[in-house]
TrEMBL record:
Name of the protein in its database record: bis(5'-nucleosyl)-tetraphosphatase (symmetrical)
EC number: 3.6.1.41
Lineage of the organism: Bacteria, Bacillati, Bacillota, Bacilli, Bacillales
PANTHER family: BIS(5'-NUCLEOSYL)-TETRAPHOSPHATASE, SYMMETRICAL, SLR1885 PROTEIN
Keywords, sorted A to Z: Hydrolase, Iron, Metal-binding, Nucleotide-binding
Residue ranges of every copy of the HD domain listed in the record: 18-132
Length: 187
């Protein structure tokens, strides 16, 4: 699928602000893909559709989790974690993308997972560092991202875990799995 066709399909799904974020994620992800020799066309499509379900009503996201083969424990965690897994299902059903690598990168873009593929890492990190983001510690992550993708992902997941703990929020197991895996990799 060509970029403009994909963007035309995505556009009516999202509010303008979220669409603009997606275009920045796409540009950042392609640069990361070129830096680390990841398939640029797959990266482009995964980035364009990573937040496909972001503006769906929460009760619809909840219904999809209950009625499809997705981890039910998601329902016991923050609803912010639902749009990736449901997005992967909807991109398959509604857009007709069946590439497992692309669908996995969409599914795990918020939490990460234990054994992330290079495409998973590119989408996870691009979503975190795109130029519109403002998080504490972001400049260090941005710098690391272009030198060592595992270090970039490690810092990003560490920041997320620290942030959630500082707010006394639960941390989804996959988020910890990702953080632990990157901690071992960068040692
Ligand atoms: O959809 P985006 O806003 O572009 O970004 P995203 O899909 O990475 O979502 C980021 C949000 O998800 C951010 O507010 C932190 C939150 N998050 C990530 N991992 C966890 C989490 N929230 C909880 N409660 N638990 C997690 O493990
Ligand atoms: Fe997201
Ligand atoms: Fe995003
Ligand atoms: Fe797990």
């Amino acid at each position: 699928m060509e970029r403009n066709e994909a963007l035309d399909i995505l556009k009516p799904q999202l509010k303008q602000e979220r669409y603009d974020h997606t275009v920045r994620v796409m540009e950042t992800a392609i640069q990361l893909a070129q830096t680390y020799n990841v398939d640029v066309k797959k990266t482009e499509i995964a980035a364009i559709f990573h937040d496909y379900a972001k503006n769906r009503p929460l009760d619809e996201l909840k219904r999809w989790i209950k009625s499809t083969y997705l981890p039910k424990d998601l329902l016991h965690y923050h609803h912010e974690l639902w749009h990736g897994p449901v997005g992967a299902k909807l991109v398959e059903k509604e857009v007709g993308i069946h590439d497992r690598e692309i669908l996995d990168a969409i599914q795990y873009h918020t939490t990460g997972r234990a054994h992330m593929t290079m495409l998973d890492k590119v989408i996870f990190l691009a979503d975190y560092i795109e130029p519109g983001r403002k998080f504490p510690g972001l400049e260090e992550v941005r710098k690391a991202a272009w030198e060592d993708i595992n270090k970039g992902c490690w810092l990003a997941s560490q920041n997320t875990v620290s942030f959630l703990m500082s707010k006394s929020q639960p941390v989804y197991p996959e988020t910890f799995h990702a953080y632990n895996a990157f901690t071992r990799m960068v040692k």
